[in-house]
Here is the input.
Amino acid sequence: MLEFINVTKSFGSRIILENISFRLENNRILAILGPSGIGKTTILRIAAGTLRPDSGEVRSDRQRIGFVFQEPRLLPWRTALANVTLVLKNNKALTNKEQAEKAAAMLKRLGLQGFAHYYPAQLSGGMRQRVALARAFVLEPDLLLLDEPFSGLDLGLKSSLQQMLLELLAWHPTDMLYVTHEPHDAVLLADQAIVLAGEPGRITAGMELDRPREQRDQLYLHAQAAKLTAILTGS
Amino acid sequence: MIKPGKYKKKLAYFWMALGILALGAGWQWIAMLYGPLIVPLPVETIKAMLGLLSSPEGLAEIYQTFYRCLIAMLLLTITAVTAGMLAGFKPWLAQLIKPLSDILIAIPPVALTLLVIFLFGGGGVQTVAVAVALGFPLLYGGTLTAVRSLDRDLLEMFRAYKVSKTVQLWDGFLPAVIYAVIPNILLAAGLVVRLMVMAEIIVGMQRGIGPALSIARVHMDTEELFAWLLLMAAAVLIMEGVLLYLTKKHLLRWQAGR
Amino acid sequence: MRASIGSLNRFLYLAGIIIILIVWESIAVRVAAGGLPNIHAVLSSLLLLAGTGELWQHLLISLHRSLTGFATGAALGFFAGAAAGFSKPLYYLLKPLVGIVLCFPAVVVVMLAMVWFGIGAGVAIFITALFTFPLIYISVVESVALMDEQLLEMAAVYRIKKWRLWWHFYLPALATAIIAGFAFAAGTAFRKTVMAELFGSNDGVGYAMAMTRFELDTAALFAWVTVCLLVVAAVELILVKPLTGYLRRWRLPGKTTEAGIGE
Here is the structure.
């Protein structure tokens, strides 16, 4: 369970976020939308624990947090496999061998089985992001934070990565906060979407998506995306 | 006019080779023009170089200087890199060290050598001390820059995944700094060699390349001077050029993407 | 916030200097005579040198040689660099020459110069020129190479006449990088002159420094070292900073020649 209660955050004298409240549990996916710079990433950082809110409360019993950033943020001097095992090193229960096995299995899930010993520089942008996904999921996280992970990728790549994400979520359901500015992305994955707007950023609107993910067909997706876009553009 | 884009590698090498030939030809011409006492012929110089490398006396001198340089590099690396790393994390420390670094850069190397002689006498240790002191600003500065340019994004990723400090050190910090610092170490090595020879002469060492140069000058032996010049230039060239290239190639494996 | 960080930095810098001075004083007190002079001794030695005129005599000689050598090397470096910047074949042709000069240990060349020119001004000027050349050359070449290609394209599209191109575009761009290169080279030039003089001249700052050895006059040596530091500092303050500051005015965010314009 992750819960924000009236969270406010300022940087210096500027109030970035005000009265942010939401609750995430039961393996639901919450999409956060809004214009650039409004503070969506800040919410993720607070959820991850790397930033503290100035006021309000954050309740979380989440221990294993996976974070997929906009850039892959891989260690350039380590192989793909080593990058994935990196986050397992805290787990004293696993031996090095077990860690490597888990990492290799994860990479295989993402279609990277031949590339475990490649360095990030030798991989394409899409492949690097897949390694970042593998790194997030190898933890078997109870909270997943995604910050526009597929922006900057071409549509074909993006859609195949989104498919992989759906498969991963089917394999290991988890709570997920998904920041994006694309309504189409949100309606594909999320159970609920909130919209941030204004200065300081507040939650101005929300939308529920009741249909289970597997049953969302093109028609449904287009309709919901249109609805969400309307909310975003304030019409 | 420069044409944008890459210049064909083969063409580049062609012109460089031509440049080397032109140098050789120019040298030969000047040597013939001014006579071998002023400028020795290229062939003679190369013979002299090989002579230095094969004769026991030549090797002995080279070994002396090399040994001192090695010790100097060891000390220099330990002090400058440690200082650079610490100063990278504590800005107040960097500011404190800055005046020292500035002075060591601004002071003419010969002046510092004389200073060291005055204070501590003359000897091998003093030449090493001079080389370390004068090489310090370069290596320290390079390490400092490397530490300062550590990727903040990676740091955030570490914190989000709650990676332990030990792992952060071994998998994050050290590789980043070491890979950035190695080129600086090589540059420092080139510098140390040049400083060492100068220090040897001023201090008045008995053995080493410096003294050999001094003697050659007294005898007006341009041939030997040229031989040493080329030998040392080649040594510095090898160190700086080739090793740097090899390191880059290794680094390139994981740096290409950036 | 900003103001206090700036003054904190200055304070720490001064603190660093003060620490050095304190260490100096404390060592001077303990070490036996002939060792480290205390600050007072150095200052009085400095004043003495100034008073007898020795200071100015040697300093002027060194500065003159420095300037001459620097001007020669810089001029050669500038024209060669400009030519090489515009012609790739020439650039690669000259690459071996410049590369090898950069690798020369200065002392060896000094020894050679002493054989060639004997003891005197020639050695100092030659050395200064020789070691200034590659620095300026590289600086100029790099700045030409970095000239904004987008601006070049704009000029081509608008068919700007060649001479206008030179006046409004090439020269200012070159000037920026050259100033930066000059800054660095100027400092090294003086140091090289002093070094050359130490070995191969009968006058000048370098010679004066060498002479202090025979009288074991540590205070005088320190005095001369201070003179050197002051010269380098003066070059920085009087020449470099104002020039780079002036040039900074039209530094666009993002696109500039990186040739080391001081932070």
